[in-house]
Amino acid sequence: MDLKDNLILVTEDGTSINIAFFEFSLINEKNKHYSGNIILHKERVPKKLQELLTEQEKLVTEGSFLLVDQIGEEINKFNIFIETSNLKIYDLYIENGEGDFKIY
Q1: pTM, full prediction
Q2: From CA 8, how far away is CA 42, in angstroms rounded?
Q3: How confident is the model at residue 58 (pLDDT cuts 50, 70, 90)?
Q4: Beta strand pairing call for 3-10 and 16-28
Q5: How large a percentage of the chain has pLDDT more than 70?
Q6: Of 78, 96, 97, 99, which is closest to residue 88 (Cα–Cα)?
Q7: How far apart (Å, rounded) are the C-alpha atoms in residues 40 and 66?
Q8: Residue 1 carries which DSSP code?
Q9: Residue 49 and residue 39: Cα distance in Å, rounded?
């Protein structure tokens, strides 16, 4: 794995919450797409974000990709960053302890 770090959610009031630990590898340099293992600290994840991640996983399983994109847009509204680099992540997807995201 290329990258081990925490995912930090910055709330509207500026509070930083460690919501996950990950070990990710860069799988597509051009698109800055990372994939790997993730440990989500569910007790720290806001309910709305948890609901969106759960719904996204369900829709992917069902193959409802138009709706997946809509859920993804909602997830992207959360300010989630890689802790040490302070880079914002996008297109977060988590399923069964694995996940992926992009950095723009």
Answers
A1: 0.91
A2: 13
A3: very high
A4: antiparallel
A5: 99
A6: 78
A7: 25
A8: -
A9: 15
Written as one string, the DSSP assignment of the chain is --EEEEEEEEPTTS-EEEEEEEEEEEEETTTTEEEEEEEE-GGGS-HHHHHHHHHHHHHHHHT-HHHHHHHHHHHHTSEEEETTT--BEEEEEEETTEEEEEE-
Pairing of strands 3-10, 89-95: unpaired
In single-letter form, the type of residue at position 7 comes to L
Question: Per the structure block, which two tokens stand in for 60?
Answer: 């992917």
Contact predicate 5/84, CB 8 Å:
yes
Distance between CA atoms of residues 51 and 59, nearest Å: 12
CA–CA separation, 26 and 17 (whole Å): 24
Tokens of 13: 């009031």
